[in-house]
Amino acid sequence: MTSEVTYAEVKFNKPKSSGTKSEPPAGKDWSCCPKSWGPFSSNCYFISNGANFWNDSEKECLRMNAHLLVINTKAEQDFITQKLETHYAYYMGLSDKTLPMGERHWQWVDQTPYNESVTFWHGGEPNNPNEHCVMLNAVSNKWGWNDSACNERHKFICKMMKIYL
Ligand SMILES: [Ca+2]
Q: Which superkingdom (predicted)?
């Protein structure tokens, strides 16, 4: 008599991961991104069609269970910028409060600590303490960060963790 292999018998044996934010959850082998989002590493990325103020851009990302783009590595920055169009600017998830001493306090929307050694400001930026919201834009075809006004309308990028099945 032959026995049928059922789904219950299919096993995946992978070492358990440490479960840090950048690694898939232990025991999860399948991941995906929503339609019209693109995958990179453990995350999914969405580039808006429309333009919006910085605050409303973050709200739109939140509505999709995401945040405005937080950049953690150079590889991530390079992945996302090759998908962008150089004649647009894109809001990302970094903004600041200017402290009384004039020092600027940069904050990522997902509470990731701001690390000066992983920043990609254009030369000469940030240049204006009255510009509190950060955009990705291309200067001479080179992508970088620029502090800019929060109440302009720009395209924006959302990021979420991949969905694990
Ligand atoms: Ca600026």
A: Eukaryota
